[in-house]
Amino acid sequence: MNYNQLGKSALKVSAIGLGSWITGKAGWSNVNDADSIDVIHASIERGVNFIDTAPIYGFGHAESIIGKTIKPFRDKIILATKCGLTDNYLHDLSPKGIIRELELSLKRLNTDYIDLYQAHWPDPTTAIESTMGTFLKLKEKGLIREIGFCNHSVAELHKVIAMGTITSLQHQYSLLNRNIETDIIPFSIQNDIGILAYGALHGGLLTGKYRTLPAVPKKEAKSFFYKLNDPDQWNKAETILHQIDAQAAKNNRSISAEVLNWTLSQKNISSVLLGARNTTQLFNTFNHLF
Predict the structure, then answer these.
(1) Measured at the alpha carbon of residue 257, what is the angle toward residues 22 and 71, in degrees to the nearest 5?
(2) What is each CA distance from 230 to 111, 198, 214, 259, in whole angstroms?
(3) Domains in the chain and their CATH numbers?
(4) pLDDT computed for residue 94 by the predictor
(5) The dihedral formed by the CA atoms of 37, 102, 185 and 40, expressed in degrees to the nearest 10
């Protein structure tokens, strides 16, 4: 496993981080807690020291599973969670909302501090300066070590860095979605902020699992979030997969490993977040990764 310094912080995160949306089970089929716990253990055994979660993943369930599993070795894990997306999917980054969510996350995660606390999505009803001010107070109290923002625009981020240091930006980034190359990545380089990339395998579309247009149930996250059933997107993915197939064979890697290596090789990517339903899926992805 390779490790990268995250922004200006002292945190050194594994190049592959464990994402946990799937651990929450809501929106994902064929997931059970025993498998999720095995995935956490297997990831750590393979050098993963960075775990990313959020209260909205299963409405607290993912945090609870992670908190129970990592409790014996909490000090060896860089633990990231988020705030700002409530149980009814309302956006709330108000001071009151942040403090309430942090208190609940600390309990579920069995910890008295969060290594990286992140604003999950923009909240149009709360000034971002108010959000950042709350984060800075929580950092002063030692409840959080570092501050991150997910899915925010450069215009918003300029307001944030005028108030204090942020350590990371988390955005969707893959061979199918390279939007952040135009502004977020240059901004992060200029301001020495690490990028955490999610969706690198685009909900499985870039793993080679699908060889025809997928037919994923609409209620599944990879359908409504990653739009796996969209014909135009499938055509783009198919073109990419044809190119990746040959490169993966040449390098003796799985398609997933080839895609993840491409993502990791891009500018200022500190860690790529990878979720897995079970250890078989995890091992297939890790095959010849580095």
Answers:
(1) 40
(2) 41, 20, 8, 20
(3) 3-204+255-286 (3.20.20.100)
(4) 97
(5) -10
Structure tokens belonging to residue 179: 């939007």
What are the percentages of helix, strand and coil residues in the chain, rounded to 5?
A: 40, 15, 40
pLDDT, tens only, 47-60? 999 999 999 999 99
Angle subtended at Cα 136 by Cα 131 and Cα 141, rounded to the nearest 5 degrees: 125
Average pLDDT, the chain: 94
Q: Please tell me the distance from the alpha carbon of residue 143 to that of residue 106, in angstroms, as a whole number.
A: 9
Distance, in Å, from the CA atom of 255 to the CA atom of 152, rounded to the nearest integer, reads 30
Residues in CB range of 151: below 8 A, 6 or more apart? 120, 121, 122, 170, 171, 172
**Of residues 69, 67, 9, 60, the one with CA closest to residue 35:** 69
Catalytically annotated residue among 57, 173, 198, 210: 57
* Interaxial angle between packed helices 279-286 and 33-45, expressed in degrees from 0 to 180 and rounded to the nearest 10: 30
Q: 288, 270, 254: which is closest to 46 by C-alpha?
A: 288
89 labelled catalytic? no
d(CA 139, CA 147): 8
Mean pLDDT of 119-132: 97
Supply the DSSP string of 208-259, one letter for each residue. Answer: T--SS-----TTSHHHHTT-TT-HHHHHHHHHHHHHHHHHHHHHT--HHHHH
Give start and end residues of each alpha helix (H) in 71-201: 95-108, 128-140, 154-161, 184-190
Backbone angles phi, psi at 269, to 5 degrees: -85, 110
SS3 string of 203-222?
A: HHCCCCCCCCCCCCCCCCHH
218-248 pLDDT, tens digit each: 888 888 899 999 999 999 999 999 889 888 8
Which residue in this structure is represented by tokens 């912080």?
9
